[in-house]
């Protein structure tokens, strides 16, 4: 009998076959809502405060047990400790005790739900994942309130770990050497469980509905981190099929890693640089591990998120300087803050925005709060003394916005000169091309900056009107849509005509299926998650610019996604049987 196959989101490549180990949800017990008397309010608020303090102590204790080599765990735990330590979180939950006279457990539930809603309306995977992490963190507080501190039963053999969700603290309490793979109900490609799985180089699938009810402890299951499948109780044919696929994939990955240090040059001598996207300082080690040419996108939001104060100029300068020093002579492109006031510290008015993703965020926020913007600019300029630092502005919509930002940058330089503070006078300045309005005037914007970086994640969503996280329309998210291909070609041509380089730093950059198209339009560099660099490099080294250019011309003449898919299948990917095997889900795209 064929096994039951559940579908989720592939977040870490690979195949794993083994016994299921369910991380129990016993600590989720139903606490009744209670109204407390007025004279017990302060006592209940103090009980909640003590629960926060005990949960913090628990996280700090776990942090101390993490080995030095697992720096990614430490970095994420530091952020989680900072979140629980944020007075805003405690005060929001205590308010329900003071104003509604609720018991501490329900005040915590109400407060966390209120904060979650602020995150979840944002059309961005990154911030929505932070909402899920907040829920996981406050679970520890709730367990302290009910007198049931978390404990995880020891793992005695190698298993596949299944859970509703996982935090670094959860995984730190487990023996990582015994975890073969992950599967979770919550999470996506940007969640920390995905980052941890990729760091540990084990298969993982997230967002699997019905996972914990379909699987029992000890069941034999298969985790397919290539297509996002979880096969429960597979039959003999499925076991044979996946065992073969596992063997071939592991052989393929070893071959890819063996040649990771070779240059990314096509068969006819065309070089494309491959950079890494990172968001944590500790991820810089992955740039070296996977032979990246540098960092093409350093997301700076982490230094601002969920803290009661704003980072100082000195704090930011030291972070950027240290990162640039480690990478030198490899390049580092720092993206300025891409968030709104509800995510960075305190002291900002609460704005009622129906669609914050298209509201006061990124450069719009920076133009409103110029002091915060200048603090970051000063830190980046000072770090640019190392000469491998470049600056990049996100979400540019037109020339007026860009010129206003550049004016502030020049004002900041003048202030540094007047204060005799050394900085990088000749630091390159670029912009993210991620809004359709910017695409339409790419030839004008190219005269104003030193480089373009195409952010395909947002550009595709805004161009096609698709929320790629919405399961009802995600199938319409088509990187090879003729309109998008023409937009990308226009950006590249406009950049080159004005003597500037054009890179790509969205998920499309790590999509093997799209790679021949990007080579054909002569994108100068790609910036992707570090783990994808070796595989993309392998494909690049077996492509020719001539062949890809001819393919590009034919795709520009195409009028549908399905024709573009067929052109790539027929002309390029027949040369790469391994990629066809391991990325076959990409071939299932259909025109809608």
What this model shows, in words?
The structure is a single chain. The two termini are 34 Å apart. 46% of the residues lie in helices and 13% in strands. It has helices at 41-65, 71-84, 87-100, 104-120, 125-145, 168-172, 192-200, 211-214, 236-258, 284-289, 313-327, 362-368, 370-383, 399-418, 436-440, 442-445, 456-464, 482-497, 515-520, 533-540, 545-557, 561-571, 577-582, and strands at residues 4-7, 9-12, 15-22, 159-163, 179-184, 204-206, 220-224, 229-232, 273-278, 294-299, 331-335, 389-393, 429-433, 451-454, 501-504, 525-528. It is an alpha/beta fold. It is built from 23 helices and 16 strands. It has three domains: 4-20 and 164-256, Glucose Oxidase, domain 1; 38-145, PtsI, HPr-binding domain (Enzyme I, Chain A, domain 2), CATH 1.10.274; 259-588, Phosphoenolpyruvate-binding domains (TIM Barrel), CATH 3.20.20. Strand 9 (273-278), helix 10 (284-289) and strand 10 form a beta-alpha-beta unit. Helix 1 runs antiparallel to helix 2 and helix 13 (370-383) crosses helix 14 (399-418). Strands 1-8-7-3-4-5-6-2 form an eight-stranded mixed β-sheet. An eight-stranded parallel beta barrel has the order 9-10-11-12-13-14-15-16. The longest helix is centred in the N-terminal third of the chain and has 25 residues, at 41-65.
């Amino acid at each position: 009998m064929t096994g039951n196959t559940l579908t989720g989101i592939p977040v870490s490549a690979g195949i794993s076959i083994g016994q299921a180990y369910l991380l129990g949800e016993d600590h989720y017990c139903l606490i009744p809502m209670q109204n407390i008397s007025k004279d017990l309010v302060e006592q209940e608020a103090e009980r909640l405060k003590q629960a926060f303090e005990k949960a913090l102590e628990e996280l700090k204790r776990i942090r101390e047990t993490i080995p030095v080599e697992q720096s990614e765990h430490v970095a994420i735990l530091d952020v989680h400790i900072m979140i629980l330590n944020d007075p805003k979180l405690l005060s929001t939950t205590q308010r329900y005790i003071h104003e509604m006279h609720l018991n501490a457990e329900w005040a915590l539930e109400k407060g966390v739900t209120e904060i979650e809603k602020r995150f979840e309306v944002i059309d961005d995977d990154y911030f929505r994942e932070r909402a899920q992490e907040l829920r996981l963190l406050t679970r520890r507080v709730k367990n302290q309130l009910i007198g049931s501190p978390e404990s995880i039963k020891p793992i005695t053999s190698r298993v596949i770990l299944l859970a509703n969700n996982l935090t670094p603290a959860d995984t730190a309490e487990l023996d990582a050497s015994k975890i073969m793979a992950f599967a979770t109900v919550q999470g996506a490609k940007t969640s920390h469980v995905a980052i941890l799985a990729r760091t540990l180089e084990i298969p993982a699938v997230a967002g699997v509905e019905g996972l914990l009810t379909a699987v029992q402890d000890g069941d034999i299951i298969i985790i397919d981190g290539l297509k996002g499948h979880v096969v429960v109780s597979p039959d003999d044919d499925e076991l044979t099929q996946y065992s073969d696929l596992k063997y071939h994939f592991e052989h393929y990955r070893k071959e890819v890693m063996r040649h990771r240090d070779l240059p990314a040059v096509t068969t006819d001598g065309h070089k494309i640089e491959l950079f890494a996207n990172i968001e944590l300082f500790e991820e810089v080690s992955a740039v070296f591990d996977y032979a990246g040419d540098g960092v093409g996108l350093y997301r700076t939001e982490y230094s601002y998120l969920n803290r009661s104060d704003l980072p100082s100029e000195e704090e930011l300068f030291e972070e950027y300087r240290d990162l640039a020093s480690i990478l030198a002579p490899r390049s580092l492109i720092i993206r300025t803050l891409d968030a709104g006031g509800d995510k960075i510290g305190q002291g900002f008015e609460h704005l009622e925005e129906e669609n914050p993703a298209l509201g006061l965020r990124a450069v719009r926020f920076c133009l409103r709060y110029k002091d915060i913007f200048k603090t970051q600019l000063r830190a980046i300029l000072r770090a640019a003394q190392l000469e491998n630092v470049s600056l990049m502005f996100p979400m540019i919509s037109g020339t007026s916005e860009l010129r206003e930002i550049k004016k502030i940058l020049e004002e900041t330089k003048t202030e540094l000169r007047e204060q005799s503070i050394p900085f990088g006078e000749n630091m390159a300045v670029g912009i993210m091309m991620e809004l359709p309005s910017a695409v339409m005037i790419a030839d004008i914007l190219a005269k104003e900056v030193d480089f373009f970086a195409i952010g395909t994640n947002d550009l595709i969503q805004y161009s096609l009107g698709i929320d790629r996280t919405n399961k009802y329309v995600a199938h319409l998210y088509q990187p090879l849509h003729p309109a998008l291909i023409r937009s990308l070609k226009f950006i590249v041509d406009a950049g080159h005509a004005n003597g500037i380089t054009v890179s790509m730093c969205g998920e499309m950059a790590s999509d093997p299926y799209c790679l021949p198209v990007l080579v054909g339009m002569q994108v100068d560099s790609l910036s992707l998650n570090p783990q994808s660099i070796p595989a993309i490099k392998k494909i690049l080294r077996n492509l020719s610019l001539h062949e890809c250019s001819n393919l590009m011309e034919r795709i520009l003449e195409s009028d549908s996604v399905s024709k573009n898919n067929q052109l790539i299948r027929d002309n390029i990917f027949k040369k790469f049987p391994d990629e066809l095997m391991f990325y076959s889900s990409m071939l299932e795209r259909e025109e809608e």
